[in-house]
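Quarterly update, task 2.4: NAP-bound model.
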Amino acid sequence: MLSTLSTLPEGYRALVVGAQGGIGAALMARLQADPRCGGVWGTARQPDAASQLLPMDLCHEPSIEAAMQALRVHGPFHVLINAAGVLSLNGVPPEKRLADLNAEHMAQVLAINALGPAVWLKHAVALLPRQGRCVVATLSARVGSIGDNRKGGWYAYRASKAALNMLWRTAAIEVARQRPEAVLLALHPGTVFSPLSKPFVPDGPEQPGLMHPENAAARLLAVIDTATESGSFKAWDGSTIEW
Ligand SMILES: NC(=O)c1ccc[n+]([C@@H]2O[C@H](COP(=O)([O-])OP(=O)(O)OC[C@H]3O[C@@H](n4cnc5c(N)ncnc54)[C@H](OP(=O)(O)O)[C@@H]3O)[C@@H](O)[C@H]2O)c1
């Protein structure tokens, strides 16, 4: 199945942050295969030697600024996607109970999942066209929904994604003043087989909401292509998730 972003202009340009991750790499591949796409760029903390990716660490603002500056000559970009994020960090799994909390660890998770993407957005906005439709999506997670939290646990990850959602919603209001057709989205990709989910998801066949990255990427791009409500929180199937 081909992913075609039909609501973006012919020759649209795309950027994927976290392009070597499970979902990020699948998004890159699908965008590269879209005949309407005029070019796809990606970032990674340590790009593979053979790749054309730009080095960028979400926890290091100078690297963000340098990468976004380097991309200016290729712009404008009509779709920007942040596909980076962590659940476990430095071998430490997400917390099951209050007794597991460690402020330093939580601060690092928050820095990667929420603060870094916001600082990236600060620099990436300049890549967007002044007029016409464009989309800036960040991968969030359903567990970042406060209203939908029924199981508890995963304190830092949940809090970081809730913070990310608030930052995206807030930015959507500001960005709309200069770029009324820009759509900012926080997206839940479903549960996706990837290095991030591996410790928590049993191997097995796909089922609704449990997908291989290629399939999740196709679903996410379909949502990106059709979404019109800036500042919304959507799942892989296009449904709206409560905050
Ligand atoms: N997989 C799921 O089931 C699932 C469910 C809900 C939400 N999500 C969200 O989807 C996104 C992608 O997850 P995934 O499953 O594709 O995970 P993944 O395969 O582990 O990829 C995560 C990516 O994040 C990047 N990253 C980590 N720290 C970074 C930093 N400081 N600066 C820049 N990049 C950094 C990693 O880059 P390096 O290559 O440099 O290490 C990696 O490419 C995450 O935001 C995750 O929370 C995933």
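Highlight for this quarter: Residues 18 and 84 are 4 Å apart (CA to CA).
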